[in-house]
Specification:
Blueprint: H1 9-23, H2 27-50, E1 56-60, H3 61-65, E2 75-81, H4 87-101, E3 107-111, E4 115-121, E5 124-132, H5 146-156, H6 159-175, H7 189-199, H8 202-209, E6 216-218, H9 228-234, E7 239-243, E8 246-250, H10 257-272, H11 289-297, E9 302-308, H12 315-335, E10 340-347, E11 353-359, E12 367-374, H13 378-388, E13 394-401, E14 404-410, H14 416-425, H15 435-441, E15 445-449, H16 454-459, H17 461-472
Parallel strand pairs: 2-5, 6-7
Antiparallel strand pairs: 1-2, 3-4, 4-5, 7-8, 9-11, 9-15, 10-11, 12-14, 13-14
Helix pairs in contact: 1-6, 2-4, 6-7, 7-8
């Protein structure tokens, strides 16, 4: 495969060196993090004994592999339990143990395939995760692979590769493509590590990524002997990276098309013009209400905001439900002849959720042109005339448009606000809107148009940032 050559390799090396100085944890931080991790692992072991559970407690993730970024160490402590324990018991007993070991700290119950416990200890996120102690390939839960991932990477990484991984992670975070959670739909830490292991450096990865095609395949262990057919029979995601500890799993399954091509685009931009700004982009600053009002008023489009309250679900489900509902309402708008330029979802993950739709125009004309059959098709023409000639919603015609019949039909909705309002209030019409969002809408919602959203942006700084970014619409690396 041809890859683009780098014209500014020296400057890239200098940039990497400067970036690494800012993101590499020093010895003091490493010692402190490992001390917290080992202390908590010991407490988990002690709690397991208290509850008479046989388990092996291990440190996993980026801390175990020494690939975390300065001041961003998330500590993953795994409880590896016997396969004989049923999943229900795993959830009940292991969560009790996790809560007992972290009883001094505020905890949150999180969910993946099964629940785990999260706590904040000395400004570090701690995850205590149960999994089964199993044989490679005989997985009983998704978390079972993690200890094998840690072992695989620690055997292959050296300091040079670890630093290349850190640089990639920082780059991914700055462009918004890091994180496999549904909210982001990007690259997981393990995926970043495998990419560096495969390409051997950040620079080589960007070189290759800038030439990636759809359904790009990376099979680091050569499980499939370069047989693309076998791989495509199993996977159909935009990026396919075969898990080195599980040939039947795509490590990049969570990566959405949007995030994949954002990474490809950012890679090309960095190779064209390398800059430290690519790792430390300028934070969107505050904009005055007057300026924000001008941005909305002068763009010539129509903005519709659907605001509603709490969704009774865990964080990943909240975002999944929002994205599904956004797609459904976007399709409803399109089906009623509204041209949706863009849409987005936002949540504070607590009590406020907002769907954003930017329409080319709103309202639209009350009448739409409906074309019928060509005149020479006699039977079709007779059927068309019979159906539309005296129909209540026919306001113009029928007339002959060159060689076809045409009529002017009255639209059911010519105002997007009315359309959305009726859709959301009518239970029968809420089909397609995600269940938990639909339940939330029963408790009320508000449809806000154009500049009227400014009141909300004044009250909520995080939403204001999202609104400004949405209005600007351009990724920072596109110049």
């Amino acid at each position: 495969m041809e890859v683009r050559t780098i014209s500014n390799s020296e400057s890239i090396d200098n940039i990497k060196k400067k970036v690494l100085e800012k993101i590499l944890p020093n010895l003091e931080e490493k010692r402190a993090v490992l001390s917290i991790a080992n202390n908590l692992a010991r407490k988990v072991s002690e709690s397991a004994k208290k509850f008479n559970l046989e388990c092996i407690v291990t440190l996993e993730g980026s801390v175990a592999k020494d690939t975390w970024l300065k001041d961003e160490a998330d500590i993953d402590i795994f409880m590896q339990i016997p396969r004989t324990l049923e999943k229900k018991q795993l959830e009940e007993i292991c969560l009790k143990i996790a809560k007992d070991s972290l009883k001094k700290y505020p905890i949150i119950k999180r969910y993946a395939e099964h629940p785990f416990i999260e706590a904040n200890v000395d400004n570090h996120i701690i995850n205590v995760v149960p999994c089964y102690r199993t044989i490679k390939g005989q997985w009983m839960s998704a978390a079972d692979r993690t200890p094998f991932h840690t072992e695989y990477m620690t055997k292959r990484l050296n300091n040079q590769l670890r630093n290349e991984i850190r640089i990639l992670k920082k780059f991914m975070k700055s462009i918004g493509t890091y994180g496999a959670e549904i909210k982001i739909g990007g690259f997981s830490g393990m995926l970043c590590e495998i990419l560096i292991l495969h390409y051997n450096s950040f620079r080589n990865l960007l070189n290759s990524a800038s030439e990636w095609k759809n359904n790009e395949i990376i099979d680091i262990e050569n499980f499939y002997k370069r047989s693309e057919k076998d791989i495509y029979d199993l996977f159909n995601e935009p990026l396919i990276v075969i898990d080195p500890v599980d040939r039947n799993r795509n490590l990049a399954a969570a990566v959405t098309e949007k995030r994949l091509w954002e990474f490809v685009s950012a890679s090309r931009a960095f190779l064209e013009k390398s800059s430290e700004d690519s790792f430390f982009p300028k934070i969107v600053g505050k904009i005055s209400s007057k300026k924000l009002c001008e941005m909305i008023a002068h763009r010539g489009t129509s903005l519709i905001f659907l605001k509603f309250g709490k969704i009774e679900a865990v964080v990943d489900i909240i975002w999944s439900q929002l994205f599904k509902s956004e797609r459904s309402l976007k399709q409803s708008l399109k089906s009623n002849d509204f041209n949706v330029l863009r849409s987005a979802s936002w949540s504070d993950e607590k009590n406020l959720n907002i769907l954003i739709f930017e329409l080319e125009t709103n309202p639209i004309p009350t009448i739409r042109k409906h074309l019928g059959p060509q005149i020479y098709r006699k039977q079709d023409s007779e059927h068309f005339l019979k159906k539309h000639l005296n129909a209540k919603d026919t306001t113009i015609g029928p007339w002959i448009d060159i060689n076809r019949w045409a009529v002017g039909k009255k639209r059911m909705y010519n105002n997007a606000r009315n359309l959305l309002s009726n859709l959301l209030r009518d239970k029968e019409q809420r089909i397609g809107i995600a269940k938990f969002v639909s339940n939330s809408l029963k408790n009320g919602f508000e449809i806000i148009e154009d500049e009227k959203i400014l009141e909300l942006s004044k009250k909520n700084e995080e939403f204001a940032k999202i609104l400004i970014a949405f209005l600007r619409g351009k990724n920072f690396w596109i110049k």
